[in-house]
Hints:
Layout: H1 11-15, H2 41-66, E1 71-80, E2 82-84, H3 86-93, E3 96-99, E4 104-112, H4 113-118, E5 125-129, E6 137-142, E7 144-146, E8 151-157, E9 160-166, E10 168-183, E11 189-194, E12 198-204, H5 205-209, E13 213-223, E14 227-232, E15 234-236, E16 249-250, E17 254-273, E18 283-287, E19 291-297, H6 298-301, E20 306-312, E21 322-327, E22 335-336, E23 342-349, E24 352-360, H7 363-368, E25 371-374, E26 380-383, E27 387-395, H8 396-399, H9 404-409, E28 411-416, E29 424-434, E30 440-443, E31 453-459
Parallel strand pairs: 2-5, 10-13, 17-20, 25-28
Antiparallel strand pairs: 1-4, 3-9, 4-8, 5-7, 6-9, 10-12, 11-17, 12-16, 13-15, 14-17, 17-19, 18-23, 19-22, 21-23, 24-27, 26-31, 27-30, 28-29, 29-31
Amino acid sequence: MKKSKQEPLDVGSIFSEKSxxxxxxxxxxxxxxxxxxxxSSSQKGSLAAKxxxxxxxxxxxxxxxxxxxxxxxxxxxxxxxxxxxxAELVENYNISVISGNDALVDITVEGKKNxxxxxxxxxxxxxVDLSGITEAGEYTLKVNVNVPxxxxxxxxxxxxxxxxxxxxxxxxxxxxxxxTFVKSDSxxxxxxxIETPTVMVTGPKSVVDSVSxxxxxxxxGTLSSSVDVVSRITLVDxxxxxxxxxxxxxxxxxxxxxxxxxxxxxxxxxxxxxxxTLGSDAVDVRLSADEILVKxxxxxxxxxxxxxxxxxxEELLYNDVFSSNVRLVLPEGIENASDISDITVTARxxxxxxxxxxxxxxxxxxxxxxxxxxxxxxxxYSFTDTYFTVSVRGNSKDFEKLxxxxxxxxxxxxxxxxDLSSPGPTVVPVTAAPSANIGxxxxxxxxxxDDCSVDVRLSK
Length: 460
């Protein structure tokens, strides 16, 4: 039986739909009285079969890819090599790997394609075995590579790693300087102060032991004033040769050095008056040494021509002459370059005299004078004295021209009874001081204020 030839499927004819605007009538181009044939069942089945065939092909391709048994290779670069049994090395022999900790290798693996495609760096372990090492030294060890089942290592580069094993120690080494400079003045002296006198050096014991010091090489040029310099350290041996080892470490890499340019200078010694009630021309002060030789930096001594080493309290001039042995204390940073450590200070009021002036305690006098009375809380008081005496000292030429009233009215007097709480008679000191720089001051006895007090009776 002869088979009829099958015509090609017209896809367009299957999916195109004739329409007369929705009425289902033939289009204008169709023959009158003839209807358009609808797609046959055989044509629809053929299209579905083709779509199914495509889907099956995709599924088969995916499956084939997953079970592909083709052999392939894959490269992994810069894989870190670990040291196996490093902890046991330290525990058992007190030595550790000084070099070789940072070794890297390149690996090429081969295997079935589906296995290799899934392989990552985390699946590969590279290491050297330290279990055979028992003492310090340099060792070349094979690089071992662990990979999953079904994977082979075809290339490991490098195939071995050299490790240096030694005891790691830390030792303190002194910091020294090699300094060159030119002084701008031949009388200048240069003092050096290293702020970090030692550094801690850590590394292989054999290398650390060879380090003599941490050296600073500094060139200051011309020195005319003090200067601070930050310099990098260089580890050197006893012969000055640099000790170079990549496994040496220091706790600091730089050190600050202060260079003080110093000089000697003769400085005049002076004194001052504490309260300012007398002018310096009214007091004659004499010193056992008028000047002193000092040493200090150029900056500190540039403006230091005289130094006030003692302040005299005028109230101590209750006698004609005051004398005291004073320890000489210089400003910070200034050094005493002489053999003088104490200065004897002798003072007296030039052409001075003392006047003892009564201050009356009646109501009128209290109103007229600058007398401040601080009452004793909830107690009553009465003065059993009718007056108290104030002694003042001054230069006789001007001082004795003043009347008693002028002097007393210029004083600030205070009778303070605030601390008294027991009834009965008592003695209350009177504080007295000039209200301004008027050329005289109040004099007390050696027991302080015993010459200026008042008798008081307290009662509830």
